[in-house]
Amino acid sequence: MSEETKFYITERKINEYALSLRNDERADNTVEKYIRDVRAFADFCQTSRKQKPGANGIAVTKEIAIEWKIKLKDTHTMTSINSMLAALNGFCAYFTLDMKIKPYKIQKQTFLPEKKDLTQEEYERLLRAARLTKNERLFYVIQTLCALGLRVSELQFVTAEAVKQGQVTVTNKGKTRTVFVPNDLRAALTEYAKRLHIRTGSLFVTRNGAPLHRSNIWAQMKKLCAVANVDPSKVFPHNLRGLYSRVFYGKEKDLAKLADTLGHSSINTTRIYIMESSAKYRRIIENLGLAALKYT
Questions:
Q1: For residues 9-36, average pLDDT
Q2: Given phi > 0 = left and psi -120 to 50 = alpha, else beta, which region is 112?
Q3: pLDDT of res. 46
Q4: What is the dihedral of CA 77, 240, 87, 101, to 10 degrees?
Q5: Which candidate in 28, 31, 37, 129 could, as Cys together with 228 as Cys, close a disulfide (CB 3.0–4.6 Å)?
Q6: Residues 6 or more apart from 280 whose CB is under 8 A from it?
Q7: How big is the CA angle at 44 (ends 25 and 88), to the nearest 5 degrees?
Q8: How far apart are CA 281 and CA 264, in angstroms?
């Protein structure tokens, strides 16, 4: 590739790409992840070829991108790699760069790995641990996320006004939906707001009044694991949304209704949330009785 046809990654281009994602109304977490992945690729370009960022930025080629794809196998799962490649491909497409990298082919998984299968009993142990450690805010953050099936970014819509009305209006990814608050949680959050003298606005904010960040909630949840005797690999905010989905579907058996409550445009996305655990699939296979007959 000649000097004239080389493409360079610069901080200006990365920021321009981030702005385009926001203009497309992509979620803040999505924008953060895509930019983080593009920067990871830029760092690889710099270290793998011992490049020093010049006036033009960091030079990239499809050859280096393929090397990055292969190198990521040492540290990342195939699913994570494909997600990172999607970020890079989006970046390249935005700048009309003919450098699309093919994702790895992954057989669709029909069950939830046990290490990610947070059960209702484990969820309740986390709540008891939050109560034992006197972390009231975390207790209600966990309970609200799970009971309403919310994303962390949607927690900001749980306001004093919404709790009073018994329903939360959530706007995310260009869509607006109404989430009903169970009476038990409504009563508990009303008392919580009174104790903290919160009369208006979001219930869960930092000292500066900003919405709680996913990383802060994630870190606090991890600290509960030892007290709750729950595997830390199962404990992260989005897994509460998965538990909500499995419990909802287990009771209602209505995928379309579940998709509506989660704010999904596609039912195929919702199907991912209701995968049963591998342990349950194993019990199903064992109970088929097709291997019961002995040779001797």
A1: 90
A2: beta
A3: 82
A4: 40
A5: 129
A6: 111
A7: 25
A8: 26
- pTM, whole model, 2 decimals? 0.65
Strands 167-172 and 175-180: antiparallel
At 19, list the tokens: 């702005």
Q: What is the number of other CB atoms lying within 10 angstroms of the CB of residue 218?
A: 14
Alpha-carbon distances of 42 from 26, 62, 186, 272, rounded to whole Å: 22, 13, 47, 32
How many other C-beta atoms are found inside a 10 Å radius of the C-beta of residue 101?
18
* Structural tokens at position 256: 């379309």
- Tally Cβ neighbours within 10 Å of residue 181: 22
- Tokens standing for 105? 């082919």
Predicted confidence (pLDDT) at residue 225 exceeds the cutoff of 50: yes
Count H helices and E strands in the chain, helices first. 13, 4
Q: What tokens were used for 51?
A: 């490049």
| Cα atoms in the 13 Å half-sphere on the side-chain side of 105 | 0
**155, 145 Cβ separation under 8 angstroms:** yes
User: Which residue's entry shows tokens 């104790």?
Assistant: 195
Compare 109 and 194 and report the one with higher pLDDT.
194
How far is the first Cα of the chain from the last one, in angstroms, to the nearest whole number?
69
The CA distance from 29 to 33, in Å, is 6
In this structure, which long-range contacts are made by residues 75-80, counting pairs with CB atoms below 8 Å and at least 24 apart in sequence? 78/104, 78/106, 79/106
- Token pair belonging to 281: 């699939």
DSSP notation for 262-285: HT-S-HHHHHHHTPPBHHHHHHHH
Q: How big is the CA angle at 198 (ends 194 and 201), to the nearest 5 degrees?
A: 140
